Amino acid sequence: MPELTSRRGLLFGTAAVGAGALLTGCTSNESSDEPAANGQPAAADKPGKPVTIGFAGPQADHGWLNAINDNAERRAKKYSDVTLEITEGSNDTAAQIGQIETLINKKVDVLVVLPADGKALTQVGLKAMRAGIPVVNLDRIFNTPQAYRCWIGGDNYGMGLNAGHYIGRKLKGKSGARVVELAGLDNLELTKQRTQGFDDALKNYPNITKVARQAAEFTVESGQAKMAQLLQAQSSFDALWNHDDDQGVGALRAIEQAGRDGFLMVGGAGALSAFQAIKKDDGVLKATVLYPPTMAASAIDLARALGQGKGVGGLAEFEIPASLTLYSAVVDKENVDRYMPTGFK
Amino acid sequence: MTQHASPPRDSTGKVPSAGAPPVRRSLIAHADVRILSLLGVLAALILIGGITRPDEFLDTRNLQLVLTQASVIGVVTVGMTFVIISGGIDLSVGAIVALASVWATTVATQEYGFAGILFTAVIVGVGCGLVNGLLVAYGAMVPFIATLAMLASARGLALQITDGRTQIVTLPSVLDLGERDAYVLGVPPLVMVFAVVTIIGWLVLNRTTFGRRSVAVGGNAEAARLAGIDVRRQRLYLYLLSGLCCGIAAFLLIVLSGSGQNTNGNLYELDAIAAAIIGGTLLSGGRGTIVGSVLGVLIFTTITNIFALNNLQSDVQQIAKGAIIVAAVLVQRRTASTT
Amino acid sequence: MAPEPPLLSMTTITKSFPGVRALDGVDLDVQAGEVHCLLGQNGAGKSTLIKVLAGAHQPDTGSIRWRGEEVTLRSPITAMRLGIATIYQELDLVEHLSVAENVHLGHEPTAAGFVVRGRAAREATAALLARLGHPEIAPGRLVGELSAAQRQIVSMARALSHDVRLIVMDEPSAALDPDEVDNLFRIVGDLTAAGVAVVYISHRLEEIRRIGDRVTVLKDGRAVAGGLPARTTPTRDVVAMMTGRTVEYVFPERPARDPAAGAPLLEVRGLARDGEFEPLDLTVRAGEIVGLAGLVGSGRSEILETVYGARRPDAGQVVVEGRPLKPGSVRAAVRAGLGLAPEERKAQALLMLESVTRNVSVSSMSRFSRGGWIDRAAELAAARAATRELSLRPDSPAAPVRTLSGGNQQKAVLARWLLRGCRVLLLDEPTRGVDVGARAELYAVVRRLADEGRAVLLVSSEVPEVLGLADRVLVLREGRVVHTAPARELDEHRVLDLVMEGSPAS
């Protein structure tokens, strides 16, 4: 049953537009045949010394995390000199520690770790580093820089900031503009950071007031429920920022059910369905702010470079940087084609 | 202290006899006290909502919204109420809703159209209920453990089916049911389903042998067995019923959200248990009402609505919810001790 | 009277429970170093008295003096601190803890006030067990793995782990083999030699003769004799005191008809359960009441429950109106026309949260329903007819059954079977928890139900009840029928001799 029913099947079956966009996206961008990221390898592309990379991530119970795994695997396949040892994702801290320890014992050359819980896995990061295995820490950061050689991750504050600035520019000159915010799970630090960034950006636009904020739970169901309440609470507003494209599916459903329009909506994360809606441009969703899962591909690039003792192409440095914060780009109708291949399902 | 006063019924002293036998009157009075206190809470909430956000709260659309949001968890709660009355517990309701909702929204299922989705959701719900029932009734497993196991497996299977991805429903026939155009005389179809399930649940509990047996099994399983009731078969049916309600709720959720996701039904078990308990269902079994449970659901949904309309955040909502559960149980303990 | 004040002296203790006066001015005094036996039939008040002594029940009136000083036994802990330990019949051990943990439960040897010194506890336990003659019980074993006799030893070790001056033993020999009883008596001897007093409760007169110093006999909540010499008081006198009437029961007259005239409704053939009762044959005819007389543990309730299908027999079968019943199925029994009024009415028969009507109709719901749909008017009418026929008070079908008196609750159970149309009634201690005054009415009801052509199998530990109500009596001792006779050919002394001594003493 499950194989008949995967989302991939659904999208290829029903979203011909998406498939077409994917092809054009690849060619128009003059990139390689690699659809997950921009295709530009971080280090020199010539095959070098063989590198075994251990990859440990959480359970892929969310579209974005799924995309992380996909990006890592595809990127690794692209390099003939890279062998990827990927563990079964787990949300259980103890299980993940065990998996990473196994990778250490197997003496992989480099580790890429997306911890289920950054603080809880710091010790095992330190252990790997002491064993002489460089660790690329993906997104959820360890407690101490000693536990990783290089951190690469998204910018939650930047997401809010860029969403705020985008909305600010779009509502320029509109006096008494009202915006609402549909936040993610409120007990996560990242939700606070996204809201903080959004609020800080809006301070630059005195004509805009944030009139309401409700927190959903990154799920379609909660997105629908909370958005329905927000729509009832605010009979009119000009813009909506939704933290997460997954819950955005529910939010869009609520907007449709309430028969509301006349405002612009900005999403977050970069789901394929959001890209497609932006490209179609027949609804309220006009843009989404990236939290790019391509960071996993980049992490593989960094790990390979570390394993081969190379630096980053295009920079003057001999060494790989200690930390890389990705830019939370805003994707709207203008540039959506370029990002389409990176959209996750 | 109150026990001493209890055997000579205090209410018979107060109420001057007129027509009906006094004991019957006091029974009705006690049943009513519980329901009335819930109605009182609801009225107070409506007052608060009406004062704080008169335009948005006292609005037909808002009534439709509150009732629609209550429908999914409401249907689950009706099934849960039966299980708790019978002395059991079903921790797997949220997971069953999730599994049913994703199984019913796979590409393969969607090819069978509206009926395919409805049928799959209901069958998956009933199937999970069957497994729960067999484990509890014939496998002699403690309901807490059996349904906890079902919770874990159903969530796992739901994740496996979806791969963590949101399954979007593309069938207009299903989606349209959740739109305003489908409202009949201003009543959303989801709310109608909720109402029908409530009425059937009430009738089954109060007017059928099935309901009587459920209460008997929950009140005193040994006495029920020695009175000639097939306790095990009754338990099996009760978990089947809960599964059926989960299947229906899953279909409603598909219509409402236009999708199926493995994270659906998150913590429904706690919401449904909480609603049943503030509605006066004894967690130890033997007593409970459908009306009380439904009022419990409406109270929770109304609180969420008022808080959202007033732009209060989820932390405050959760605190209020907890306080209401404690208050309701305390009030009931007092009314129970004077019964 | 004693040169120094008695160790314990309880004066005019009364204790009432709703509807029952369990203790009605009981006096008891116990000297240090003696074995003081408590005798009495079931329901005489022995258990209540020892619970008062253990601090588990508070007396309504009366005073307790301990070593000459007035005390209030507010809780079991107070009693334990004074040096009063109780070994209950149903042993109160925690099965999932070890022997040592059970022995020291609540007063574990600790270091720094909270760290349990497990080793010290085990050593102390081992010493106690050796003193009790059971060094083979390892202190580290789980109590759940021990035999009943071993558990009793552990219970005793627990009592001795306190600084104890008085030990109450509630039927300690009931679960023991003869060898183990000898060991128990040796322990009792050691204890009394060390100045510890023992309050010993037993049904077995021969035990009392062997180890007792003095005897107090309880009857209907009163001490009918206090401090008799245990070894020299004639058996006949003791039995007379135990059975002496304080309240005259009124039994309905037996119809003057041939007991063999009715059709056999219930036939039990070779029914047996290992360890509970030996193969049993009996027949109950239409219109006949057959009584089973015996003590607790004689297998009475087990027999009834097995006949009813609530327990699965190891051998034999039950035949109702000529058709054998499916063994071990209550539903089959009910369908064949059997009805049980169980011993523990509240736990086994009644839906305490429900109304009288629903309690009465619960076994006959299909009669008032079509397609599962209940005709509530018909239900109410039928239930009301049944309760009125039995004069159930109050006559309010919607009253919660828990508000009824014990006798009326029993009537509700009988009405259930009356409504069901059952032909064979199994009554287990039908007057337990029923006021003395209300019993006569209940007896009349039972007789009437029989006269209407039903077969009644009655179990009671109250011998006069069996003799007064039944047509024919089977006397049980330890799972075996030791005597069968028409009730009018037996008297209470004879039956008591039979159940206590095991052999006809005529």
List keywords for this structure.
heterotrimer; B: 339 residues; mainly alpha; ABC transporter involved in vitamin B12 uptake, BtuC; two-stranded antiparallel sheet; 17 helices; 75% helix; globular; disordered N terminus; C: 506 residues; alpha/beta; six-stranded mixed β-sheet; 24 strands
What's a concise summary of this model?
Chain B: The chain crosses the membrane at residues 33-51, 63-84, 91-108, 114-135, 142-162, 182-205, 236-256, 290-309. The complex is a heterotrimer of chains A (345), B (339) and C (506). Chain A has helices at residues 7-14, 16-28, 63-78, 93-105, 122-130, 156-170, 189-202, 220-233, 245-258, 272-280, 295-308, 336-339, and strands at residues 51-56, 82-86, 110-113, 135-138, 150-153, 177-183, 208-215, 239-242, 264-269, 285-290, 323-325, 330-332.
Structure description:
- The complex is a heterotrimer of chains A (345), B (339) and C (506).
- Chain A is α/β, with parallel strands linked by helices and 345 residues long.
- Helices cover 41% and strands 17% of the residues of chain A.
- Chain A has two domains: 51-154 and 293-327, Rossmann fold; 156-290, Rossmann fold (3-Layer(aba) Sandwich).
- Chain A is built from twelve helices and twelve strands.
- In chain A, helix 6 runs parallel beside helix 7.
- The relative contact order of chain A is 0.16.
- Residues 1-37 of chain A have low confidence and may be disordered.
- With 339 residues, chain B is an all-alpha fold.
- Chain B has one domain (53-337): ABC transporter involved in vitamin B12 uptake, BtuC (Orthogonal Bundle).
- Chain B is built from 17 helices and two strands.
- In chain B, strands 1-2 form a two-stranded antiparallel ribbon.
- In chain B, helix 16 packs antiparallel against helix 17 (314-337).
- The model of chain B is unreliable at 1-27 (pLDDT under 50).
- Helices cover 33% and strands 26% of the residues of chain C.
- In chain C, strands 6-9-10-3-11-12 form a six-stranded mixed β-sheet, sandwiched between helices. Chain C has a six-stranded mixed β-sheet with strand order 18-21-22-15-23-24, with helices on both faces. Chain C has a four-stranded antiparallel β-sheet with strand order 2-1-4-5, with no helix packed on it.
- The radius of gyration of chain C is 25 Å and the shape is globular.
- The mean pLDDT of chain C is 86.
- Chains in contact: A-B, B-C.
- At the A-B interface, helix 1, helix 3, strand 7, helix 8 and helix 9 of A face helix 5, helix 7, helix 9, strand 1 and helix 14 of B.
